[in-house]
Description:
The protein is of the alpha+beta class and about 140 residues long. It contains 4 helices and 7 strands, in the order E-H-H-E-E-H-E-E-E-H-E.
Amino acid sequence: MIIGILDIDHFKFVNDTYGHQVGDIILENFAKVILETVRASDYVIRYGGEEIVVLFINSEMQGSKATLERLLEQLANNPLHTIADNQNNTPIYISFSAGLAEFPIQGENGDQLLKEADKALYEAKTSGRNQVRIAPNP
Length: 138
């Protein structure tokens, strides 16, 4: 099993510029795009704020990473649309940063896996965002 933590890049800018209502719509549409991209056997869970956890069941690391990189490419070429009371279907391009960890290599329980995936996410963010990083082997 592979766990991925995805965090929308510069989401505070979206909320500050367009308002929280549009931010919520962006989160919903982001989750829909993720669900359309991953397999039916995978799980997509809102983890907090703008973070989403994806559990890749019966998957290898390179396949999970490739799935998220396809998602990055799709979002780069297709804006998410919003329809809110104070907006007129504003197209917004987003990107995300992601960290991946694999059971049992990077952790033997959920807490360890989340911690290692979060470290990889931090590395993705501090290395320029808009990328997927894999947690190092212990």
